[in-house]
Amino acid sequence: xxxxxxDRSVPGxxxxxxxxxxxxxxxxxxxxxxxxxxxxxxxxGASAYTVGVxxxxxxxxxFVASLDFLVGIAGLPSLGHGAFFGIGAYAAALLARDVTxxxxxQLAIAAAIGAAAAGVTGLVTIRSRGIYFVMxxxxxGELARQVADxxxxxxxxxxxxxxxxALKLIPGGGSVVIAGHIYWYVLAMTALxxxxxxxxxxxxxGQALKGLRDNEDRMRAxxxxxxxxxxxxxxxAGGFAGLAGSLWLTQLRFVSPADVGFxxxxxxxxxxxxxxxxxxxxxxxxxxxxxxxxxxxxxxxxGRGPLVLxxxxxxxxxxxxRGLAGLVPGGLxxxxxxxxxxxxxx
Amino acid sequence: MTGxxxxxxxxxxxxxxxxxxxxxxxxxxxxxxxxxxxxxxxxGSLFVAGAYAxxxxxxxxxxxxxxxxxxxxxxxxxxxxxxxxxxxxPLAGRGHLDQALLTLGIALVVTEVxxxxxxxxxxxxxxxxxGSVEIGGGYPIYRLALIGAGLALxxxxxxxxxxxxxxALVRATVCDPDMVAxxxxxxxxxxxxxxxxxxxxxxxxxxxxxxxxxxxxxxDAQVLLLALVVVVIGGLGSVRxxxxxxxxxxxxxxxxxxxxxxxxxFLLFGAMAIVLVVRPAGLLGTRxxxx
Amino acid sequence: MLAVALxxxxxxxxxxxxxxxxxxxxxxxxxxxxxxxxxxPLSGPFASAGEDLRRGFRFYLDRHEGRLGGRKVAVVxxxxxxxxxxxxxxVRRLLTRERVVAAAGIVNSAVALxxxxxxxxxxxxxxxxxxxxxxxxxxxxxxxIWRTSFANADMNDAMGRxxxxxxxxxxxxxxxxxxxxxxxxxxxxxxxxxxxxxxxxAGEQYSPxxxxxxxxxxxxxxxxxxxxxxxxxxxxQDAIGFVRxxxxxxLAGRIPLYSPGFLTEGPTLDAQGAAAEGLFTALHYSxxxxxxxxxxxVEAYRAAYKALPTAFSVQAYDAGAVLDAxxxxxxxxxTGAALVAALPKVxxxxxxxxxxxxxxxxxxxxxxxxxxxxxxxxRFVNAVVDDLGxxx
Lengths: 346, 291, 392
Known about the structure:
The structure holds 3 protein chains of 3 kinds. By secondary structure, chain A is mainly α. Chain A has one domain (2-319): ABC transporter involved in vitamin B12 uptake, BtuC (Orthogonal Bundle). Chain A is built from 15 helices and no strands. A two-stranded antiparallel sheet of chain B has the order 1-2. The mean pLDDT of chain B is 82. Chain C has helices at residues 2-12, 47-63, 84-98, 109-122, 153-165, 181-196, 216-225, 236-248, 267-272, 292-305, 311-328, 336-342; strands at residues 27-28, 34-40, 67-68, 71-79, 102-105, 126-128, 145-147, 173-179, 201-208, 229-232, 257-260, 280-283, 334-335, 349-351, 354-358, 364-365, 367-376, 379-390. In chain C, helix 2 (47-63) packs across helix 11 (311-328), helix 3 (84-98) packs parallel to helix 4 and helix 5 (153-165) packs parallel to helix 6 (181-196). The model of chain C is unreliable at 10-14 (pLDDT under 50). In chain C, strand 3 (67-68) and strand 4 (71-79) form a beta hairpin. A 7-stranded mixed beta sheet of chain C has the order 9-8-10-11-12-17-18, sandwiched between helices. In chain C, strands 3-4-2-5-6-7 form a 6-stranded mixed beta sheet. A 3-stranded antiparallel beta sheet of chain C has the order 14-15-16, with helices on one face. By secondary structure, chain C is α/β, with parallel strands linked by helices. Chain C has 12 helices and 18 strands. Classes of the chains: A mainly alpha, B mainly alpha, C alpha/beta. Chains A and C meet through helix 3, helix 4, helix 9 and helix 14 of A and helix 1, strand 4, helix 3 and helix 4 of C.
């Protein structure tokens, strides 16, 4: 656990206080335990509205974690990751409407389709590096949004898919309509997915990806299949994004082309930046901050949501300590650069 | 053949007009990419500034007002470029994602400011040259003038970059900024200059384009996307590439929509994806992006 | 830090409702203010229509001392935003957090379609003040969803019938609209009525929704088809560009343009100016309607807001009237169920557009007017030239 948290490429990190980075693990464990207890106990005391907000934070946080995996671990900066989140949501919606509303089935389909989409588009995108890769991901994200917008017979077009049937836990079972129960389902699934993602991250595959991020040429010289690694990373990230999309859909019961497009991708990217690279927990914290600010603050200040978001973008970029060099060490120039600050954690 | 040509002449001309507009917008973006290696997602906001200047000063279609708007826009755009130079300076070497986020944030803030000053309604702007010519059934004179102005601008920028010393410095900085710095040239001046000139051009494009596209708060996102596609297709840092890309995209948007309206949305990004796969550095790009 | 914040948030929202069934709508007891939700776009492409909607509703409340049905009313406004991605969560907030007892508004059909099930599930009645999607009322509707505006078919059906009765148009009529559900619904209704009356269609095209700036390619197709007239549905910014370019590319004056009234309503007409002169449109309202009720309304509205009312203002104004009538029938606690029982009995609504009542499909049974854009002094207005009859 402490190894996971200490494994950050930006010394000092973006979010967790300095005390934790000194290696003391007891406060961290206590904090984590407290958060978990609070999450599980939430429906007992909170309103339907509150569990709805936290549930959405969990789903979006998982999406952010998948993007962080792609950007922070594999070093592939994507401006179009929302495509896989949205595709997963659409897949889950269509499955619920036409076949079965059983939750785990939706998760499986959404993850599979998200992964497949990421893999297929990856075949095109990984041929580019640096700024061109970023632009291609942007293009693909926008293309996906336009497909969602125009393929009316499948996706409902600009209107999106509404009235998606409520969640069922077992085939033939009753619909889960109580807010607290839906929340527990989302919490359980998110925890499982999060654990899985952390395990992948800690595995040999994850380490190889970090090596790829730090110095692609060196990895190639060492005999790794760079293309294979990148594709696999996209596959994993896309799968988890799709999974998150399905959890999002289960709560909103509605999906529209905006969930596929650049706005969603940009929002997730903001969260990744706030969280700092390599911090899976940070993904959820950042998601909480962004969603609370956008949805809650947005209503209070009457339609000024984009302004707050814009200011957040600016503030995050300027105020994060020690910059964001950890995000993609050495920037995106296609030249070999010494890895910055990653030697410690390995 | 000639029948097809006369039927679609208006669309083709429109494509050229749109292309010229996109060139004026995209060349600044391309230079800023090439010279500063900065991904500037606030470029569309400069265009919007120009569009609103045109609306405020030339709404009634007067030529004098329009001219004034062009001058004012050049000033605002240049100042905006300077602000962006300063704003992105601390991010030097930090990577494109940070720049994307910062400039995106700036763009969002500017859009909100525009909405509070000028309201949320879209506004139309009358062209300073009224009337139509009997080409292809009726073609506005203003758009022909726009084509002329755009091509003249393209020529001017191209000659400036290819023939002058400053232009040589710009091209050198695109290829190898470290070498240029080692030569003792004040790269800061070159960099700021690229941002300022690029910004001024974008704002002027906004003025010129106002009679076509109007002035509305969300115009920046629409034109930015087109400009990004143009720049990537043409090649980062290449002026001629920007012109080629702009004319190409202009035709895709206009002739493409006329001939294949259902597929039109995909043509744009599909074209970009294809170009990037076949020529990863863009059509005339000088950067070896796949190295 | 964050734990404290989240803790505070859960305490703030702590009514312990997460484990309860969604109850039969919130309720307001006698004496306390009735909580009504209002959903309108405050940002995005429909923001100007949203502003008209707010004004119309406010105007009704102001004229009735902030009371509906004799009860004090607390209005909770939420921003529908640019589309369902913001509108649906906004509605959700209205229902689960604010726990309103009824709601009014919604401009974007996509938002209405995405959110209407939430109202039905929460058993809270919704009075739609603009969104025209046909399926929201009618056979697929619900007793919880009512509408004071129109169904997308209404004005197009009227226009189709009227145009079919005019002298035959050589070359037929070319149809244009943006590519989204409302675009298709409006065009289909016109097409059905027009061809049923013997009219001929020359062609049909849909431009990409929300991103079309340049209509020249579509106008080129119009010319190529040899059509004798054009029927087009555009609103907001699209409408401004379309009408101007219609003139710029030489079609105005040569190929007559007909349209549902959104093409020239409110600020869009101001922006179009002389380019729109002479255009025929069909709508259920015009600020120029020459009745005592409307003249009064327009004068008072203008005094309050320094602008002419639009169809959007009147629709929201009437939503206030509907809620007024329904609430007035309820004794005791106001609940969603009580309102749903009262709404079918509201009877005739006295509106600036004329008197109307709900059809059995919960849509206004109203008159459509044929309008033409005419110059009046230094501005342009939609002068009423004919009565197209009641909606079918």
